[in-house]
Amino acid sequence: VMSILLHGDAAFAGQGVVYETFHLSDLPSYTTNGTIHVVVNNQIGFTTDPRMARSSPYPTDVARVVNAPIFHVNADDPEAVMYVCSVAAEWRNTFNKDVVVDLVCYRRRGHNEMDEPMFTQPLMYKQIHKQVPVLKKYADKLIADGTVTLQEFEEEIAKYDRICEEAYTRSKDKKILHIKHWLDSPWPGFFNADGEPKSMSCPPTGISEELLTHIGNVASSVPVEDFKIHSGLSRILKARSEMTRNRLVDWALAEYMAFGSVLKEGIHVRLSGQDVERGTF
């Protein structure tokens, strides 16, 4: 499995979760062995100038906290983009570390149907309207090189338009939307009892009240005899014991019973995080 995250430039610089996940990226129990971050840098966050949105020159500077290589590439040059992406994939494959591709591009239309970017960004949008679209720019280059003919290019465009038009026409015939079709798995039978792997099928998970009571009693006892525990803790254990006796549960005891039942089946349970270590939860 390889994770690829797609970001906007303003979001990459402005969302704390990006910085936080970079710092998780190399922790022993949390690493994903390198994420490829692709930043679609259209140089405008909603309608804000970069100079009004962040303090550093590049939106990708936040990746420097883990020394991730950052490739800034002109998105108007598809071959350069492909080259950079293959280098990024190779980096991730070789070193299992994060890597960032900064696609420096622009946004031709507004943020949504109602947004007219000329109101807030007149100078930028005068330039953008003069800009030849990347598809035309690259097609002209390929035709000039003799790589494809004008006819081949037009046929490809027509073929793609036809796919879109046919799908659009078919969508009008849909009377009911089945959400589960969107969530379906490409492997038939993957989630059935006959399918593989077996761990994906979901057997009944209920357990007997007797076992719950046993777990509740263990959870409210002290494992070592004559062990002097903190009075605050003994209060919690006493309350837990009473709840078990009265057939009541709170959130913590319910979690305890869930973990206990899994442990009882011989499955290892690992809890991590600061609050777990100091016993808050």
UniProtKB/TrEMBL annotation:
Underlying gene: Ogdhl_0
Organism, as annotated: Motacilla alba (White wagtail)
This protein's GO CC annotations: mitochondrion; oxoglutarate dehydrogenase complex
Family classification: Belongs to the alpha-ketoglutarate dehydrogenase family.
Cofactor(s) named in the record: thiamine diphosphate
Molecular function GO labels: oxoglutarate dehydrogenase (succinyl-transferring) activity; thiamine pyrophosphate binding
Domain of life: Eukaryota
PANTHER family in UniProt: 2-OXOGLUTARATE DEHYDROGENASE, 2-OXOGLUTARATE DEHYDROGENASE-LIKE, MITOCHONDRIAL
Occurrences of domain Dehydrogenase E1 component (ranges): 2-179
Protein name: OGDHL protein
InterPro entries: 2oxoglutarate_DH_E1 (IPR011603), DH_E1 (IPR001017), THDP-binding (IPR029061)
Biological process, per Gene Ontology: tricarboxylic acid cycle
Signal peptide per UniProt: none
Keywords linked to the UniProt accession: Oxidoreductase, Thiamine pyrophosphate, Transit peptide
